[in-house]
Design a protein that fits this description.
This protein is an alpha/beta fold. It has eleven helices and seven strands. The protein has a five-stranded parallel β-sheet, sandwiched between helices. α6 links the parallel β3 and β4. α1 crosses α3, α1 runs antiparallel to α11 and α3 packs across α9. The longest helix is centred in the N-terminal third of the chain and has 25 residues. The protein is globular and about 50 Å long. The site of thiamine diphosphate (TPP) has 21 residues, from α2.
Length: 280
């Protein structure tokens, strides 16, 4: 990306992080670690890679996002709010009675959510099916699927990946959030997964590993996925759980933690300072 575009995408990632805080602070606690680790990829997807229309969320020609790690709804809601799918203030209703923003993503409730997820593993099969459907229709829409590293311990993921490779679904891009932590602790302590890059390659994917909190590296990896071909794509995103807020990064068990008034004030001040520097 040109330097100016990099700044814009970084600013979007910062706004997404602020939105995550607004949503989670309003309920008092939530899935902050895995939401923050995907803020950068969401900024690249919605800042430059995906085709969509906030005024017409169900537009047939849109690219689709499946957040298979559906507990990271706060990150996707923040992105959709910043991009104008619904009013920003609505973030503060998350997970409250009557909200359109349940804690886990739901396509029947939220404008801009393309698939209901939350039961880990299942989104991978849904994404593969959606990509296959687009292929059968002869459409050029693409499907992006964000998968957690802990989530990938679900065997269903690998069935879905096998299917995608067998059907040569080059319109499917799997974005594996390798943040090295899951709910119960570190991936390597719970169940080591070995090399994700080797695994995806063995399963027939065109695969790269990049710094998943670096918008330039992500943009380049995503550009590669535009070329079609006969393999699905995997981008193994080497990320930090809690990325972008040093206190959260440094909290080992940061899967779901309280965000009280004090933390909210400190963290939003840090992010607003960053945003100002990017926008100056
Ligand atoms: C089938 C299923 N089992 C358990 C859960 C509860 N759960 C929600 S998030 C999570 C950990 C997921 O870890 P990871 O995929 O690494 O997510 P991240 O660290 O990126 O947030 C678990 C066990 C669930 N949502 N679905």
């Amino acid at each position: 990306m040109e330097a100016q575009e990099t700044k814009q995408v970084k600013a979007l990632a910062t706004k997404i992080r602020l939105g995550i805080l607004d949503a989670i602070h309003s309920v008092g606690s939530g899935h902050i670690g895995g939401s923050l680790s995907i803020a950068d990829v969401l900024a690249v997807l919605y800042g430059r890679e995906m085709r969509y229309d906030p005024k017409d969320p169900k537009w047939e020609g849109r690219d689709k996002l499946v957040t298979s790690k559906g507990h990271c709804g706060p990150a996707v809601y923040a992105t959709l709010a910043v991009k104008g799918f619904f009013p920003y203030e609505e973030l503060k209703t998350m997970n409250k009675p009557g909200t359109r923003l349940p804690s886990h993503t739901d396509r029947n409730k939220t404008p801009g959510i393309d698939m209901t997820t939350g039961s880990l593993g299942q989104g991978t099969s849904l994404a593969a099916g959606m990509a296959y459907g687009e292929r059968l229709k002869g459409s050029d829409c693409r499907v992006f699927c964000i998968v957690g590293d802990g989530e990938s311990q679900e065997g269903q993921c690998w069935e879905a990946f096998e299917f995608a490779a067998a059907k040569k679904l080059s319109n499917l891009v799997v974005l594996l959030d390798w943040n090295k932590r899951q709910l119960d602790g570190y991936l390597d302590d719970c169940m080591p997964m070995g090399s994700f890059e080797d695994k995806f390659k063995a399963f027939g994917f065109d695969t790269v590993t990049v710094n998943g909190n670096d918008v330039d590296a992500l943009a380049e990896a995503l550009e590669r996925t535009r070329k079609g071909g006969d393999k699905p794509y995997a981008i193994v995103m080497d990320t930090v759980k809690g990325a972008g807020i040093p206190d959260v990064e440094a909290t080992p068990m940061n899967h779901s933690i309280p965000v009280g008034d004090e933390q909210y004030a400190k963290w939003t001040a840090e992010l607003n300072k960053q945003l100002k520097e990017l926008e100056d």
